[in-house]
Task: structure prediction
Amino acid sequence: MFKFIVTKELGKLARWLRILGFDTAYYTSETQGTLIIKALSEGRIVVTRCRRASDSLDKITLVINSDKLKEQLREVMKELHLSVDEGKMFTRCTFCNGMLERTDKDGVKESIPEYVFKTHNEFMKCASCGKIYWRGTHWGNIQDTLNKILR
Ligand SMILES: [Zn+2]
Result:
């Protein structure tokens, strides 16, 4: 499975790659010095809108042309011949890239709104930042959006 490092201007795309289950680092610095080091040492593909990369990065860089999220996601999927693996979806935290783990209902009671606790049974927790996820309406919207993008 591909691993990515996404540059600053593509924050939304980074979140969507995480939703799809890809290990996606988000690079927020303006300079590219440590970008190269991180990409090479961690085996990540650089996803960027800027053709500023040096020759040494050419082979591991995917330059995105569109400024629209849907098109951007389509570009990544097409260029790298990726497909959506539903088993991998929702396995990563969209905020920090940590792995999500199943967690029991009682353990999250204090951290979520009461109506969510009453109406949901399946919860996931980020192993890194502790954010809690559940299969709400948001989840369904994501799948609808993906179907539209990738059709
Ligand atoms: Zn997290």
